[in-house]
Amino acid sequence: MGEGPAHPVPAQGGPSDEDGPAPARRTTGRRAGPKRPDMVTITDVARHAGVAVSTVSYVLSGKRAISAVTRERVLGSIRTLGYHPHAGARALASRRANVIALVLPLRSGMHLPVLMQFATAVVTTARQYDHDVLLVTADEGPHGLHRIAASAMVDGLIVMDVEMRDPRVPLLHELERPSVLIGFPADAGGLTCVDLDFYRAGAVCVEHLVALGHRSLALLGAPAVVYERDTGFARRTRSGFLETARRHGATAVAQPCEEHYPAVRETLARLLAERPGLTGLVVHNEAAVAHVLTALPTLGRHVPDDISVVAICPDEVAERSGPALSSVLVPAEEVGRQAVALLIGKVEGETVPDATLIDPRLTARASTRRAPDPREAEQVGERAGLR
Fold this sequence. Notes:
- It is built from 15 helices and twelve strands.
- The chain is an alpha/beta fold.
- Helix 11 crosses helix 12 (about 290-300).
- The protein folds into three domains: about 1-95, lambda repressor-like DNA-binding domains (434 Repressor (Amino-terminal Domain)); about 100-195 and about 335-360, 3-Layer(aba) Sandwich (Rossmann fold), CATH 3.40.50; about 200-330 and about 365-385, 3-Layer(aba) Sandwich (Rossmann fold), CATH 3.40.50.2300.
- The radius of gyration is 30 Å and the shape is elongated.
């Protein structure tokens, strides 16, 4: 059925689905003031534009051809009244939900403050594209992804905490909804991934310490459970650290580190007992950074005189430490921003790069200095009773 004649005769009970004006209504009593925009309904828009409610609905949904004159009249009423169609109407109009899912399973060994930096970056960037974010924190694996994608609630998915052999990856290849991973699985073929280049992050830390003359190095990494899951960022940082140390002829060891002070101190005590000449330490565990700096003096090592410390962490963690830490930035804001831009590009049918690796940036601060003489380092260990 078309729009009908220019001056339709409304059927009994209300206006027709046509262009003509709605019938006048007799009112009595005091005239009501204008409604707040959040109270304006589609019926108010129809009455203001002089058309049927169904005509407004067709303008919003695009399901029927409406003349340009009528469409502009309806849109003008929408603007005048401040009407905001609910999400369902917007979805009908665009054939989209204007929502993206951020799949962020809250697992043990993950540092929540840093995760929330990623989530905040995704949410604020999504709003710039007129999208909302559905935060999915349940650890449901492939089943959870399938449930979200099949519901038509979202236009696409951003997936975090990616493992080297992530069981969600095969399903991502099959889903009709586009996706972006923050992190890289072992086989990233056919996927869109973005992250800090953690291999290079580990390497840059070694290069900084070696340039200062340090030859005995250690990496305190994420909690053991993170390595047991074979999480990509932890695995790649460790590889970059160990392989770069080997290329430079430095001795190096990498081991997990739990997040609480007693465990951190115990780990450091054991490490220093085994390696009394240790002078360079890399910490890739945001929750443990402050505990490391607190524990080292109790073990006879002062930063940076006896031991230099580099962290892979957000700048605010490094800057508020005492002493301020030389560090490689975890660029949560940039990664989140790029993940959203890549996903929106895929939703819009654009061609986007498969892999986006952000180069690490190291800032030297007060926690690193020239390495002490190796014999002095050994003597420090002996004085502390660590041998």
